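Can't attach files on this board, so I'm pasting raw text. These are the components:
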Amino acid sequence: MAEAELANTRSEAIVPDIQNPIVTVSNLSLYYGETQALFDIDMQIPEHRVTALIGPSGCGKSTLLRCMNRLNDLIDSVRIKGVVEIDNDDIYNSGYDVISLRRQVGMVFQKSNPFPKSIYENLVYGLRIAGENRRAVLDEVVERSLQAAALWDEVKDRLDESALGLSGGQQQRLCIARAIAVEPAVILMDEPCSALDPIATGRIEETIEELKKQYTIVIVTHNMQQASRISDYTAFFYLGRLIEMAETSEMFTNPQLEQTEDYVTGRFG
Amino acid sequence: MKNLLNRGPSAQVWKTGVPFIWLTGSALALCLLMITGLVALVMYNGTGFFWPSDIEAVIFKDGRKAMGQRWDKQEIPASNRTGSGQFRIQLKVGNRDVYGSDFQWIDESDIQSTDYPVDAVVFERREWGNFYGFVEALYEGENRVSNTWDVLQAQLDKTRERHEQIRQIEKDAIGDLNRQIESLRLKKREIEFGDGNADEIDAIDRESRSYWEAYERLADQLAQLRAANEIYRIDVRLIGGEVRQIATADVVRAYRPNRLGMLGKTSVYLSRVGEFLFDEPRESNTEGGVFPAIFGTVMMVFLMSLAAVPFGILAALYLREYARQGILVRVIRIAVNNLAGVPSIVFGMFGLGFFVYGIGGSIDQFFFSEALPAPTYGTGGILWASLTLALLTVPVMIVSAEEALSAVPSDVRAGSLALGATKLQTILRVVLPGALPGILTGIILVIARGAGEVAPLMITGVVKLAPALPVDGIWPFFHLERKFMHLGFHIYDVGFQSPNVEAARPMVYTTTLLLMGIVLALNLVAILVRNRLRKRFGGATF
Ligand SMILES: Nc1ncnc2c1ncn2[C@@H]1O[C@H](COP(=O)(O)OP(=O)(O)O)[C@@H](O)[C@H]1O
Ligand SMILES: [Mg+2]
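---
Top answer:
Structure tokens for the assembled complex are below.
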């Protein structure tokens, strides 16, 4: 479907009613220099749920995700219009404290990115930069977050070894543990399993299952099965627009739009 | 198309890629060969110098005699052969004060016989080079004492001890007094220029007089020590039969190589190596040690690194982390890269103009004006030389630090920022540790480059013979304005500027070997540190 046609036919996305949104995106447009990457996104992320963002490559999922912790600020050419609210605060407000935002909204990247430090120091990084240096507190956080990421048993005897010595899957779970060590409200995950084998993927999915009791998770994925397995809500994007968002069961069994159905059933994408 | 590609067996061979493997392999082999050849040559020429070879006594057919240590052996070109001999040998016959020259070429065909007299002695002297001969008699004052080897060695020990004392007094005590007197003189001048307060001038004069008295006492002491050493003398019979007298105090070391076994020679060898490493040079640098040059080289490299490394890292951090990547940054990057290729003498000229005359001259104006026109900082010194070299090596540091920084994945930075770190925290806690091994590689390059440079040093503070080390026990301990010695310059000076190039040649190789060893040692330290860091941070990512 051509872009212009799409814009004409579907100015409003189909979105569900969400009772307790923690993130609210209103009218969000984003430009990389002259090129527009996001078009008038309106969506709400429910608290303590897993929301999956799906859509073909280049449709703006990562870009949208990075709007939620203002990581797009790092790119000089980015311009943003619209509002992103977390707990009813506009995070793009000039007075908003980016540092505290990022403590509230953690992120796990596509490629695992442990720091060139020991496992222990990786985990307490967020606390240390916030000024927390009491050993007892740090020890406790390390154990808690490793338990939560189901990594404790594997690494508890080698906390002082370099994090770069872990396997790919372990590194990714370490990054998840590192994100939850600072107890954020929301965790953003950008295709966290795309570089991992099925077994490692399975373990991460289990971890996510556990985490959603306490955290709000927004996950980008290319894997429809994964989306249907782990998420409560799914949002489908196409060419920078939100096309349809619904409860996951609804989305995969009974999508409102043919375009969505085509994508989730794998007929195009 | 198919026909074109499969034109024959030679095309087939090219397709397998084997010739290319051979080409690349042999290029590498050639490089290795050249490097090992260089090291082997220097090792071969440099390590043998201290070995005490046997003394040959040659009797010519016409009855003349010569005695010395074998230095060289050459084939005589057929065109200018006079006798029947095919070879000629070069003897180091020493006794420069008697013969006028240290060396003698001898045509093999002129030789009647050669033998190795067991009692032949090598005297290494503080002046005039080696003396070869036989001990005829020993004197203590007017008295002839028993002429045994043990007595000679005992006398040598005694005189050596006094010689040390003399040197100590000359260098430390008198040097100290000189400085005190000089500073008093400058103070007095300052007062005279100022209000001319007579009381203060009087006080200074009194103090100055007390120093002069102390000086007088030291001079007396020196004269006594010298007189005490005077009484020991040795009568040495040369191979030709004549007898010469030398002062025991002039002898550094005496040994009879023809009597020494392996063990004895080794001990002489080690003692000479020790002298080389830990003593000061003698005889316009062609003998003795190179300690001041070692010290100067290492200290210069340290000072240089101290200036170049942090500066380079900071500049690289700005370029890579803060500057907006655009045309300006690209131009700067190209300029920095090119700066690394500017001939070093150009930096030397800049150092002379900017550091020595510019900054040094201003420092003198403001802080050492009472000493003018004699310059303090406004002349070459180790500080200016190090800074000049730092300038020369800082581009190397910037380039490699930038490379190391850009090797840290951007995801890792983003990961740190996403955890709520500020940019500064990210740089200090994540980026720099990740880039550290690469930065250390840069430091290795800086050290290697800096330790090998000579040209810019020659106009910014290196001298043939420095009167004092840049570090000593006198406050403020580090005297960065002082001139210094450097192994690279030492090699040049000994090899090409010394009055006795022939005798100095082995010294050149030995010093070269030492310079290579020092650069290697400095690099080894950096490499060890880097490997430890690699191990700590694990993985090949960094
Ligand atoms: N740093 C950037 N500069 C310019 N364009 C970008 C940048 N990052 C992404 N884009 C563009 O924005 C669009 C959306 O990219 P992205 O959010 O990465 O898509 P997705 O994650 O859905 O695959 C793409 O067309 C991409 O080319
Ligand atoms: Mg993406």
